[in-house]
Specification:
The protein is mostly beta strands. It is 3% helix and 39% strand. The strands form 7 sheets. It has a 9-stranded antiparallel beta sheet with strand order 11-12-13-14-27-23-22-17-20, with no helix packed on it. The protein has a 5-stranded antiparallel beta sheet with strand order 1-2-3-4-5, with no helix packed on it. The protein is globular, with a radius of gyration of 19 Å.
Length: 350
Amino acid sequence: MKNIQISDFGITKEGDIIKKYTLINKNGMQAEIISFGGIVTALTAPDRNGAYKDVVLGFTNPENYFNDNSYFFGAIIGRFANRIAHGKFSLNGENFNLNKNNGENHLHGGENGFFAKVWEAEIISDTQSLKLSYTSKDGEEGYPGELMVTVFYTLTDENALEIIYEATTNRDTVINLTHHSYFNLSGNFSQSITDHELQMNAGRFIATDDSSIPLEGFREVAGTPFDFRNFKTIGKDIDAEDEQLKIAKGYDHCWVLNGEGMRLVAELYHPESGRKMEVITDQIGIQGYTGNFLDGKFETKTGGKNNPRTGICLETQHFPDSPNRKSFPSVVLKIGEKYETKTIYRFSAK
Ligand code: BGC
């Protein structure tokens, strides 16, 4: 790690001064992260000739980040990534109502989730990490408990962006944090990602109803367009006659990851440039979302429009709607416990 540079990013409507932290490693790779939403506004990666280019979608001006509540470009997502059916759950016999910001359902922590919060930033000199902290009040967005959240972003000299999430609460609550970068390894953000090859160590996925709420049980990927056990292009089956793909206008599903503990779970490869990204995590699921609801309303950082399928999110997380599913692993964080999870996005070229 070489250094971290701090610069002004913008001022929110509420008058908060937002700073940008540029993490630079010894190879010259850069990660730009802002104190608003913990958003990664740029992340460079090398192609096979060693040329570094930005590979994450974003806006061209700060206000768009401050006003966004539908793309979640590069943001920290919490308290609960993905959907909670009807914005309701019960815990310890008490019912909780969350706001419904996705039709009848609650999505990504609500209208003013963690992606829309101002985080306190601190540079940890030992590891050259950016530490972002946020305290979510008891009852915020309808969730119980005051939640103290810390996210550490570290850019290593192995060209990996490491994200560590930690949290504690003063009352039992639910939690599911993730990162929402849309990757486009071509570095041209108006170009479709359907030419990228994807491989995921997942034998099963979670099928959903037409509002993207999980159906019962897991489905085998074998014999379906959801089979990424071996590398294939994202475009190969994305338009197949398949009810699940129709619902989401492409892939927008949670895969059930094989194995446990910190392990390599997915690889994304762009044959033209040679850029490759590995996803390493201790999480049990990954939401693979092919940017189906990008709608061309904004100009991309490299010109052209942010059309559908110009980026892919690989969001490591617990399963959607877990607070309402007895059969899914628990997402409850109890008083006195510590939530801790780690995901690494590692870049190389071949
Ligand atoms: C979800 C999509 C949602 C998108 C919003 C993704 O994480 O899976 O369903 O439309 O976020 O940007």
